[in-house]
Structures are given as structure tokens and as C-alpha cells.
Amino acid sequence: MLALSVPALLRNPDQLASFRDDPSAAGTGVEELLRQLAIPAPLLRTAVADIDLNGNRIAAGEHVLLSPLTANRDPGLVPERPDDLDLHRRPVAQLSFGFGVHQCLGQQLARLELKIALPALLRRFPALGLAVPETDLRFRQGSTVYGVEELPVTW
Length: 155
Description:
This protein is an alpha+beta fold. It has a single domain, classed as CATH 1.10.630.10. It has 5 helices and 6 strands, in the order H-H-H-E-E-E-E-H-H-E-E. The protein has helices at 2-10, 13-21, 25-36, 68-71, 107-124; strands spanning 43-46, 51-53, 56-58, 63-66, 129-130, 153-154. A two-stranded antiparallel sheet has the order 1-4. The longest helix is centred in the last third of the chain and has 18 residues, at 107-124. The protein is globular, with a radius of gyration of 17 Å.
């Protein structure tokens, strides 16, 4: 999540400056980054019974692909500019750490690490940048956690 957050912040210099310089932005900023960059892989589930979901019929035995990243950008959840990074957006419920009994046990530690590490990284390396074009970044394949293979940077 740290490595995914860096390019997202570099694409939004005003957001990066706010995150780096305003300690009060870390809480909402981390929640927004988690919402926008959800790292869990899509989940494949099989319907155990017939169900109607928002006017769509899913028959028992059919497969359904659930994407936390797509769900976190649902206009019903985030009605204004759901695809835009807004570190001052009021946090909304999101699925980056799962839901219900399937929530990540380490989510509070992960949030704390992001709140501490990202601003510290940005303050320590104010000229931080990508060493390669963002389009050259390689992303994990076949992993249950979405992320970059490596993050070449300059400072």
C-alpha cells in the first residue's frame, strides 16, 4: 500500500503537499488512499441460492466476481467524483480490509503505519519522484494482494 500510494500522490502534487505538510490530513488521507487503491484481489464466489440483486437475477450455482476496488468507487457510496483522489474527502465505508467476520485483523496497524510512514517519507525526500515513467511500473500478477513489483524512485 505504501508503494501504491507514492505514484497516486505524485500524480496529485497539491494532495501530496497537503498530506506531507498538514498532520490533520493524514487520517482522512489514508482512508481515501485505501478506498481508491484497494489492494485485495477480486473474490470469486458461487451463489448458493437464487437471488435478485438490484434487478439482476443470479441463479444458484452461478459465479460472481466481487471487486473491492470497484465497490469502493461506487457512485452510491461516493456520489461526487468517485475516481478522483481527494485526501480531504469525508471517509466512507469501504472494503479495503474486507467486511464483517472477514475483516483483516491487522487493519488498524496498517492504517497507523500509513499515517506515520507516508508523511515521513514525503518530508524526508521532498524531491521524491519516479525513476521510470508510471506506465512502466509492473504490477503483481496472480497474487491475492494488488501492488507493484518494484517502485524505482529518485530523490
